[in-house]
């Protein structure tokens, strides 16, 4: 049964509550219903198209409605749709475990499945805490995170980070300390701050959490070469678990399969989600080592069992589409096509925005970019621009005065050109019309 748009709008405005959304603002400019998608494009109920410059919340890899991923999903749909992963297994999960071990750094061989990124972080935290209990180090209870870190919105994940999104809930965090983030080309002050924390709390610390290479949700803040290796060496010296959150940067986003593999760092825990299923279904995994896994083995009466799990962990549909996603990604990386796309994207970003009069800073690595806008305006310019860009057939996410550009990995050169041209034009129009002063009409009303 086809439902008319007015009815859908009424239902959405009457009953929904959208994440990370001020609903009063949302109700003012009305819903945008996405009805279907193909490749890098989304389409609304009226047939208007939008370039998916947000990769559908940073998840889309090979494009919407990819024929190979569709076929993998359809095949699995015909045999097994859901089965508990508690005391049971199924072929797709076993194959995915093997595939993950093949792309992970040497030593990360065990996969613990959950269904979203924050949950994979929670699993790593609990595994670390229980490991230290089981191995005679019950005093190791502290978390170390990095300034501006974002690992999800559950309480353990919030505690592992230090994001401004979560300050309201900080009095309920687990015990944690945070060290300064490095500058793009300088890690000395960051490492000195970490050394200070390790000297003071190293014997009490269970785990250090880090988003390697790029802190995405913070605003694409970049880390210098060698920083990850330096942090890993310190964790090893102080007998602290290193957990790498590659939920955003992993599986192709920066031009390679994994940051940790590219930088030859084997962490104790590696968290993956977002692009794991190519943007099709919820799935996450926490990879860990045989050493940690073996500490949990024993008779049930010994109390070593990891009593933690999710109903849809290792869902057959999600694991089947993940296998095909990784298979395609391996080809995309090996033949150089992904790196070529990243290079072209970087060149286009630089040519359109490096000297733009309304862009204060450009942070870009791989297919991840942040444009920090040059304005004293406190009314979230980037958010208004993201609304304005809809009329230019582009969907982006604006946070404060920073516009985030994170396209699907499959984006073509022509689509990159379109994305950059439309975004640059929108920024110029905003600056001309609403900053210089020719109009004071809020863009949210104009949309």
Proportion of residues in extended strands:
15-25%
Mean pLDDT: 95
- Largest sheet, spatial ordering of strands: 4-12-11-10-7-5-6
Kindly report the name of the CATH homologous superfamily of the largest domain: Type I PLP-dependent aspartate aminotransferase-like (Major domain)
Helix content: 40-55%
Stretches with pLDDT under 50, minimum 5 residues:
438-447
**Radius of gyration from CA coordinates:** 22 Å
Number of DSSP strand runs: 17
Q: Tell me the name of the CATH class of the largest domain.
A: Alpha Beta
The major pleated sheet works out as: 7 strands, mixed
Number of domains: 2
CATH fold label of the largest domain: Aspartate Aminotransferase, domain 2
Q: What is the 3D form?
A: globular
Describe this protein's structure:
The protein is an alpha/beta fold and 447 residues long. The protein has two domains: 145 residues, Aspartate Aminotransferase, domain 1 (Alpha-Beta Complex), CATH 3.90.1150.10; 267 residues, Type I PLP-dependent aspartate aminotransferase-like (Major domain) (Aspartate Aminotransferase, domain 2). 40% of the residues lie in helices and 17% in strands. It contains 17 helices and 17 strands. Strands 4-12-11-10-7-5-6 form a seven-stranded mixed β-sheet, sandwiched between helices. The protein has a four-stranded mixed β-sheet with strand order 1-2-3-15. Strand 10, helix 11 and strand 11 form a beta-alpha-beta unit. Helix 14 runs parallel beside helix 16. The C terminus is likely disordered.
